[in-house]
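Predict the assembly for these two chains.
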Amino acid sequence: MIGEWLDIGRVDEIPLRGSRTVQVAGGDDIAVFRTGESQVFALLDRCPHKHGRLSQGIVHGGAVACPLHNWRISLSTGEALGEDRGCTPVVPVKVTAGRVLICRASTLKAAA
Amino acid sequence: MKHEPIRIGEADTRLHMVVIGNGMAGCRAVEELLARDPTRYRITIVGAEHHVNYNRIMLSPVLAGEKTFDEIVINDHDWYADNGITLLAGDPVIAIDRAARTVTTRGGITMDYDRLLIATGSDPFIIPVPGRDLPGVIGFRDMNDVGAMLAAAEKGGRAVVIGGGLLGLEAAHGLALRGMTVTVLHLMPTLLERQLDEAAAWLLRTALEARGQTILTGADTAAILGDAHVTGVQLKDGTELPADLVVMAVGIRPSVALARDAGLDVGRGIKVDDHMVTSDPNVLAVGECVEHDGQVYGLVAPLWDMCRALADGLVEQPSGYRPAPTATKLKVAGLDVFSAGDFSGGDGAEDIVLRDASRGIYKRVVVRADRIVGAVLYGDTADGNWYFDLLKKGEDIAAIRDALIFGQAFASGGGQADPKAAVAALSDGAEICGCNGVSKGKVLACIDGGAHSLDAVRSGCKASASCGSCTGIVESLLALRLGGEVETGPKTMCKCTSFGHDDVRREIVAQGMRAIPEVMQKLHWSTPDGCSSCRPALNYYLLCALPGEYVDDQQSRFVNERLHANIQKDGTYSVVPRMWGGLTSPKELRAIADVVEKFNAPMVKVTGGQRLDIFGIRKEDLPAVWADLNAAGMVSGHAYGKSLRTVKTCVGSEWCRFGTQDSTGLGVKIERATWGSWMPHKFKIAVSGCPRNCAEATIKDFGIVCVDSGYELHVGGNGGIKVRATDLLCKVATEAEAIEMCAAFIQLYREEARYLERTAPWIERVGLAYLQSRLLPDAEARAALAGRFFYSQRFSQDDPWAQRVAGAEREHHAPMARFQPQEELA
């Protein structure tokens, strides 16, 4: 299937205030988050600090706390919040008819 | 029965004032008088109850178990003594002779007076239905009623509360907290109809029902059933409700019998003029028993105004009582409610309404001709005082109308949501504490007079000292006036809340909260769903408070507790199977060796806690690893959790030539009893077979050192950054005693330590003597603690690995999708 967007599954497969991953062969995983208000975001699953798996962190408000050293990363911009400095690439994502779609080009870039 | 008048303090030639009623109004009137002229009158107070003067508004928290009687005393015995007041408690006045100017008590004491003050308050209205006099039918008015309710709740069973007003709902809440099954009967179609409109009443009803109370509105009581004791209530529609206790809380009536018998002018209450003088110039009356200008009163704010007017009159500087509009700011069963003025609507009244269903907030301001005439707030009452201030001053709100409903901070410009700015903007005359009638100006004067902490303000000017709902405003005033100089209590949990860990825990238990969003809603969390600090803490506090009932929130767990393994810096996990007391077997060792080879684990290591740690396991492989380990009989070692980690042992008397007891066997027993329990932080145990202490028991959270005559029990040790050796808790003779003490200690730690506080800092904070006082002298209390621990263990000793292997929460391990760029590009 060729298109601009990749269908990765139903939105309710991601727990509220939780995250799932998309494995990309040859590259970093992509972490797909769902907030308490059911908004969906996607980031490279890699903290800018020590490369912790953001998908394993606690999601609160519009941010995720990295499980390794508790850096808080904004889900919408990928930027570290508070005193910390750093940025994780954002993967465009949209929800259509209950399906989660991520941007093909960004996913290919993640694999590169 | 005629007695000679007793003359107390014969040589004292001052005017004698006798106060009938030792309640809030009577004593407040005396306080106001003493503040104006401490020596003019010789004062005697006669009270029907045996107690000193206490805060009747606070009976609900006593019933709910949030406060003790001592905490609601307003004036203790010293106050009477220091002010030269004679107190006759427990001996009610039964007659007034106005001609002779004497009063006589039931005990037969007759005394003369120069001025008489009647402050008899009110009586609960008992509806005239058959069975109303049965044992088990009570009102909710004084400490005796609270005592009766507590005694009934001890036995459990069903309570029916007649009356869905403030008192009734408070009684129902307290009884429900005490474990009774509660039904509220209310005659009107909506609860609290005098304080709330329909929408707010519905929100309140829904919230109460969600907590397990049954609410019947439009319920008209026909009879109370039972022979020797109440057994039920029958409604006019024929419904019968079983009941072991019936509380009548349908309303109050001014207590006027004494005044009427004495021939004073009595309508609905004892008629008084603006200076609280009755139809007899030597007799005054104040409080709920009076009728002023055709009105009777049941709220506390107007009573305080009456007391001021009365005292001004007694020192010949008459000011006169003027009824003012009243506002009600309440916590009904822990829910914030505010109302003021007239919210009945009608011609020319315009409503401005804001609802936030997800936060359970409802606000309604009623405006007539550009002036606020009424307001109802539910869920968020922070702006109540501001609306009430605008209402009392009759201020024109046309200019701020668009933003009015969003509250003061927003409407006063700038859109800043800073509560300090909101408080700063209040006028000096604005009432801060409705219970005690304290204005902003008075609070500030109190702070300027040296009160630099919340407690100091409370004792200085009484602001926030009664129901406590204005505590936040008083704190803001402190911060405003003193900047960083405020002397504060414990630190807050995190930036999401103004409460400390202990406050949050206490409220969770006191209010019977059952879920994280509920805690955040009720305790006014400033963030929508908390943060990575408070969420795990709340999850733990609820889990500890509601064993077997609370549903663990996986999204509020740190990754290690969610995946039941330890995350490593490269994103793989390490897996530690449990080895009871550090013992293992060929079968277990083979299974571990097989797992290491099968999953290419790059390293296996012996841990400090006598276990084997398998490193480098991928998240997706965890369930398969666990399945293999489960098959050999091993379960999760919880090396990843804020939980019981390991019980380390030495070989003890079975092998060692120095061993005094079977330390290995005892260690295994203790680990079997305690594994799987969630704690505020990690918890390690060790058992050494002799004082040589090879298991290093004296740097564990709970350590046992066996000696010839029994077992030394040590607590509060840890290795780590700052090594702390244990304190000796006590010595016991048998294994059974050691296990019970271990369970009791763990439960005390679970219930009282703050989340992420290990036993070492906890003990440094509360002191060893405190632990000993809780664990040693009272065998029953100790058994109760241990009992609660073992009860909660019933729900936690389920191997989480086996659950995951069986397919639970598979989504934590498997990726949602896989993507192969090569295939895509091909």
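Confidence is low (pLDDT under 50) at residues 1-7 of chain B. Residues 136 and 230 of chain B are 6 Å apart (CA to CA).
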